Amino acid sequence: MPKITFYNLSIEKREKLINAVKQEFSRVPLSQASISNIVKSARIPRGSFYQYFEDKEDAFFYLLEERVKRNQSEVYFLLNKHNGDIFEMMIAFFEKVITEQDENRNFLKNLFLNMTYEVEHEFGRSFNGYETNQQFIQFESKVNKEILHISNQEEFKYLMKILTSVLLRSIIETFSKDQSKEEALRNFKLEITLLKRGLKK
In the 8-state DSSP scheme, what is residue 82? Predict the structure, then answer.
């Protein structure tokens, strides 16, 4: 995470640095990203970068964490919009991700096509990453359980893990195969329908 000096920057300077970081990670994945490009775009000395971040991985995961925070807010919004239907929320969230534009889309594409365990774990916190059990209970309370065949919180947690895994794999497939929005949505909705219906006669 950023050093304290990063948070001491003025809002304008902080945003300029973050925009430079985002631009670089939208251009190439983490493994190919260049600190030289970041400092050139931000117009700061290379040494200044290390006053704010430990390394490029530190900057990348800060950007990812900020994205996850926005995702968590979006998840709550979509749950409310769809009356607590966890399946419809997932479909709406999937559609939002695959229709991102410009830098946001490029950042996500690089993110998903170069997925590591650490990145998968962090992005998965969009749904499962509540810091306390109380926060998870609050999230769970927004879900309409009357439409779910689950009997306790443990089963709900595993349901979320399953849905999150399906979501992440579907996003990766969308980007890797360069699927159209229509094709990607059709495939994802089919998978969600199979989960809703159950697979055993």
Answer: T
